[in-house]
Structure formats: C-alpha cells, structure tokens
Fold:
Amino acid sequence: METVRQVAGFVLAGGESSRMGRDKGLLELDGEPLVARAAKLAESVTGVPAAIIGGAAYATFGWRVIGDDFPGSGPLGGIATVLRASAAPWNLVVACDLPYLTPEWLGFLIARARASEADAVLPMNELGAEPLCAMYHMRGEQAIRDALERGTRKVTDGLASIRVEYLERGEWKAFDSQGLLFKNMNSPADYEEARVRFTGRAKR
Structure:
C-alpha cells in the first residue's frame, strides 16, 4: 500500500515474556512463528521489507534484526531504536504478540498518520492507548530518548513531550468485528485461545 521511504514497518520482539514462560516471538500459529507473521503483515501494508527489534534468535527467519539500543528498558526502548534505525519519516511499530491485527486496519492507521501533523498516532482502547500497534514519526526520536535517559519506562509517559494523535474506538471499531484486534498473548491460555481460533484445534 505505502511505498518505500515514506513508511517503514518494525516488529518489537524479544521481551521478557515472564507470564508466557518462553519467547513469544518464537511461538507458532499455523506452523509459523509469531515474529514472522508480524513481519509479513508489516511488509504487506508498507510495501518494503520489515525489520525486527530483538535478539539474534530471530536472525534465522530472513528479516533484518536490529539490537535494542536500550536493552532491559521495555517497549519504549524498542520504539527509540526504531526511530534511530529507520530511514522513513513514518514508522509502523507492532508487537509480535498481536496475532489478530489485519492489513485493513493497519492500512487505515498508516493513512491517518500520513495525514496527521502529530509525532505519533495511537489507537485508544477501553483500558487506554495501544502504543504497540501505532505509528511514530522520526521527529519524535530525541524526546523519547531523553525520556529513557531520565529513567522513564512506561511508553505513554515516554510520549508525554511529543504530539500524539489518538484514534478513538469509533474510528477503528469497523475493523474489529470480533473484538480481538488488540488482544495480545501474555499467557499460555492466551496462546491456546489463539491456536484454537487459527487452527480450530487445541494443543495436544
């Protein structure tokens, strides 16, 4: 949909996965690792090769893997790394553990960002903002890095000094008929639910 050098796609992977007990990015749905599914989805809506922010474990999948500039700092450090590594003005950032995202929704998100004067465009859900399925402009990099250097770790706190446009539920609900769009996989039960939905059978 979007062309090279205007929008790039990045997948955040390699978090602690403490509740899951293993690396979520390497878990498979329909025989494909979550990190690979997310990278393919990002490519499908940006039209350019995606990159993965994470460790060497993901290098075997064929995508560019970029080490986190702020290891141990959580997703905010990953976002800062994206903005340092990217050559595109706008950057789609998705977590690897959001298996229900769709190209239709991401295409809409990209279009909204490119028409926006904000530094980031984030959807809002019932519990707040969804910063790990969002668009970030490269001009926000320094402010995010400054926040990290001050010890900020919560993503929404790290975005406090940049211009953020929020998309309310009414703007994205048409892309979410099942109410699953931003449901992530934090636990083995979440993974099992996703497996059933995608394959129609439970893990044996």
Q: What stands out?
A: The two ends are 39 Å apart (CA to CA).
